[in-house]
Amino acid sequence: MPAIPSLGGLRGRGGNRAKAAAPRPIPVPLSAYVVDCAVYVEGKRLPGRWTHSEAIKEVRKRHAGFVWIGLHEPDAEQIQGVADTFGLHELAVEDALEAHQRPKLERYDDTLFMVVKTVRYVEHESPTTANEIVETGELMVFLGRDFVITVRHGNHSGLARLRRDLDDDPERLALGPAAVVHAIADHVVDHYLEVTSRIESDIDEIEAQVFAPRSLVSAEQIYLMKREVLELRRAVMPLGTPVSRLAEGYTRLVPDEVRSYFRDVADHLATVSERVAAFDELLSTLVDATVAKISLQQNTDMRKITSWAAIITVPTMGAGIYGMNFDYMPELHWKFGYPLAVGVIFAICLLLYRIFRKNGWL
User: Fold this and answer.
1) Which of 6, 131, 132, 172 gets the highest tally of CB atoms within 10 A of its CB?
2) How many whole angstroms separate alpha carbon 204 and alpha carbon 261?
């Protein structure tokens, strides 16, 4: 019979019970985060499935083409494998892991790192009842001499359709990985234009209701719309400087042929910025108009309450005087005293009503 271990054998030093080893997390393969990985040579996509290491080896063996890898919310361990293969800077990798970055463009040695905010218009029945109008996400782009890596945060900013369109346009991809960066920036800014057009329609609807008689639009709802426009502004405004720098020859990674395209993106972005600034000013004006309208309505209500209180005071005063039970009061024992008192009270109330009505209080 085997010996049963004593209780002391189950304890560590100092009498502490031995702790069970924490379970190690199950490693997730990089393929779970890779949306697509492709090799492009002379603007044409090479057939087959590629890993990130095999793709860059193929490009550098050919001394032509580039790699485009798309990642969706990778963790630190998985993106580190890509960073080691492509030589990405650790600060840029750290930023790519963290969402809620502001749009920016940074250069690390021979690699560019760009952050852009993506936006999506949230469908709703009416802007006067909606709780959310704009939803934002993020795209981080690494641009190198022979590669472009996109890291996506959020579920609405997919680039699958854009990739398919570029696959059908080899002349454009033949310009190199910078053409992909331009296509991404152009794609994002086009969505800005679409979202601002939808928001403009919402603001027009709110404006019509604010100045309509007896409208039910509250200042809180307009302020909520203003907050949504502010979120859009945070996505749009900081992007102007990175796009302008790419259009002005900030780096040799962007050839002259692609820089001219970035100028077009900068023009569209300027249009969006002007719209967003106008939205902010208009919503501020609508908030002030709504508050003034509420104050005016409250003053009107107070006038009505005061007018009716003055009218009701007359019969109250008469009832109070004749209810004091004195024997010697005017016309107290006269047969027509009661109808006379009621008639006088009614006449005074009618006179007050006509005065208040003439002055617009009722």
Assistant:
1) 172
2) 33
**Can you name the CATH fold of 296-358?**
Methane Monooxygenase Hydroxylase; Chain G, domain 1 (1.20.58)
Among the listed residues 81, 154, 83, the one whose alpha carbon sits nearest the alpha carbon of residue 113: 83
Report pLDDT digits (tens) over 189-224. 999 999 999 999 988 888 888 887 777 677 788 888
Amino acid at 3: A
Domain residue spans of the chain:
30-295, 296-358
Level-2 CATH architecture, domain 30-295? 2-Layer Sandwich (3.30)
* Residue closest to 92 by CA, chosen among 110, 112, 78: 112
Q: Which of 130, 123, 89, 133 is nearest to 108 (CA)?
A: 89
Q: Are 132 and 224 in contact (CB under 8 A)?
A: no
pTM summary value: 0.74
Give me the average pLDDT of each 10-residue run along the chain (362 residues).
40 41 45 79 91 91 92 86 90 86 90 93 83 89 94 81 91 92 94 92 86 75 87 91 89 88 92 92 86 73 77 76 63 68 78 77 68
CB burial string 87-106: b at 16+ within 10 A, e below? ebbeebbebbbeeeeebebe
Neighbours of 330 (CB within 10 A): 10
The 8-class DSSP code of residue 47 comes to: S
